[in-house]
Structures are given as C-alpha cells and as structure tokens.
C-alpha cells in the first residue's frame, strides 16, 4: 500500500487533498471554484469531474470494486497495451495499466485555477513507461504518454474508456461521426456507417475506425450537451451494456445502465499501432460542457 503520509507533500491547501478513498485506495481529490474531481493511483483512474454549476459529467457504478488486482468500474479506465480480450490466455481484458498502482509524481495549480495531476507507471513486461496527466478545470483534459523503453517494437491497442453521466441514455444523441465507417460488435462484427445521429435503444457496442473527429453528446433529459474531443486517436467507441449484460456484470448495478454512456478515445483493433524502441505516443481526450 502506498504511504499516504509520504503523499501529503503533493497536497495543495484549500484545493487538493490526498487520502484513503474507497477500499482504502489512495485518492487525490480536487475542489476548486472551477470544479471538483477525483483520481485514484490505482489504475491512474479518474473517478469524478463536475464543473461548477453542472451535474457530474463522469459516471461511476455504485457496485464498483475498489480493490488491488481488480479494475474500477466507471470513470476513465486506462486500457493499455491492448484493447478488448487479451491475445494470451490468462491475461486480463483491456491490458495491464488499469490494474496497476501508479506513482504520483506531481500536482500543480495553474494560473487559471486548473489543477494538473501527473502519475507514472514503469512496466518491465512490456518494457515501457506510461505518464498520465489529468487536468481538472472548466474542462477535463486527460493525456496518456506511452514510451517503449525496450529493444523491440510493441504492438499497441489502447483507450481512454470514458464513462459519461447522462440523464437517460435512451434520450441521448451522439453527433459528429456521420459517414464514418465502423462495426457493430454486439453479436458479431457487422460493418456499418455512422448516421447523422447515433441513438441507444439496445445493447450498444460501436467501434468507428480511422476517425479523429470530436463528438457531441446531446442529453435531452438533463438539457445539456457534452463535447468530447480527442488527439492521437484513430478509433471512437460508443458503448452501453443495456439490461441483460449489465445484470451479468458483478461490478455494475442492474439498474444503472440508463445513467451512462461510454464515448472512448481509442486506437483499437485495426487502428492499433507499432511503437518502436525509444518511441513515444500520446493519446488524449478533452471533455467539456457546452
């Protein structure tokens, strides 16, 4: 367990506290005139962002595990160095980063009131270094910098698997992907082209390829629009488990599915890339209430 007393050097009086969060896991909490937010060292996992004057933007399951060796459900999981099921038997889905305990390296209050939190993870297999920076302010900016510290190229799949809080997913429209090719992955991959407006009326798992577009999430129930932009990303994933799948997930409440929608910045499957020895790649997402 990380020494909480040692982490207190990163606290900022009046705006940033560091304590034992759910399950006793170390947590950085931000409270400023601009927003409130949270990030756990376990998984470098953002679990809250609520800009002043607005409802929470990041969704969390009330049934989430907060335990060593288990992923956190909701927030912004870091999927790396693969997306989806592992190629090797016995390896966890969505990679290693979301199960690991990261090191807190800096917390800084910026001139405009934004708080930047930086965490680092060094891995030996694969040989790599990850830096996650989360900037909590009027908007939420999350970047993942990955560097290959080994001597052979790495095949990378990744995502910032963002869970957005919505009033009622059945009344949400996702716009900005019209004409983009992709796949419906619920039963089997079926090729499709995104319409002007994507709506959710059943289990939804849509992967759109070769797109760098920002999207808007128009939430009629809460009368607000979220903008989700990205960088270093060629895939966008739109996901909701709906009724049957959420009931099968032990860390997801049976009746929580209407309140969330994942819109993910990713490099997944055919959009994965090779990271050469010594090379780096930055994946980022920016979320704001319009």
Overall helicity: under 10%
Give the overall pLDDT as a whole number. Answer: 96
Q: Report strand %.
A: 35-45%
Examine the secondary-structure arrangement and name the CATH architecture.
Distorted Sandwich
CATH secondary-structure class: Mainly Beta
Q: Would you mind describing this structure in some detail?
A:
The chain is mostly beta strands and 290 residues long. The protein has one domain (4-289): Beta-galactosidase, Chain A, domain 5 (Distorted Sandwich), CATH 2.70.98.10. 4% of the residues lie in helices and 45% in strands. The chain contains 2 helices and 23 strands. The strands form 4 sheets. A 9-stranded antiparallel β-sheet has the order 6-7-8-9-23-19-18-13-16, with no helix packed on it. Strands 5, 11, 12, 14, 15, 17, 20 and 21 form an 8-stranded antiparallel β-sheet that branches. The chain is globular, with a radius of gyration of 18 Å. The mean pLDDT is 96.
Helices and strands, with pairings:
Layout: H1 4-7, E1 16-20, E2 26-31, E3 35-40, E4 45-51, E5 78-79, E6 103-109, E7 115-124, E8 127-136, E9 140-148, E10 154-156, E11 158-160, E12 163-165, E13 172-175, E14 181-184, E15 190-193, E16 197-198, E17 204-208, E18 215-219, E19 224-231, E20 235-240, H2 242-248, E21 260-267, E22 273-275, E23 280-289
